[in-house]
Specification:
By secondary structure, the protein is of the alpha+beta class. It has one domain. It is built from 5 helices and 7 strands; from the N terminus they run ββααβββαβααβ. The protein is globular and about 40 Å long.
Length: 129
């Protein structure tokens, strides 16, 4: 399975970086994590320096943001539902995972190694509206 890396510019537009492997994703995470402790002139500049995304398709993605020392947030839309009705009438449609640096690295590794359904099952406790 191929995974693409994307970043954000200071206007918050997505900037595709092309295909990446696990090592590139972890290196990007490390750089964003280090950037999370810096000061910025604007929120847009901070987001561009501290956030990135990984995607397998237009709908299968995770976005990581590093806010400060040991403050990492991962967002993803839910793709796997137990039934058709839960897709339309359920309230929990995305994942909002808050953790530390180690958890961010674990999520990246899981995204590369797990099928989507297994990934969502592992992080089901982080489902939200």
């Amino acid at each position: 399975m191929t995974v693409d890396l994307y970043r954000f510019d200071r206007d918050l537009h997505v900037v595709e970086q092309g295909q990446c492997d696990l090592n590139t994703a972890l290196e990007t995470f490390e750089q964003c994590y280090l950037n999370g402790c810096a000061s910025y002139d604007s929120g847009e500049d901070a987001y561009a320096a501290t956030s990135f995304g990984l995607s397998r398709s237009r709908t299968d993605f995770i976005e990581l943001s590093c806010h400060a020392h040991d403050s990492v947030t991962v967002h993803s839309d839910r793709l796997c539902y137990p039934s058709r009705l839960s897709r339309y009438f359920g309230f929990k449609h995305s994942f909002n995972i808050k953790g530390d640096k180690a958890m961010g690295a674990e999520i990246i590794c899981d995204y590369f190694s797990m099928e989507r359904q297994a990934f969502e099952a592992k992080y089901a406790n982080f489902l939200c509206r």
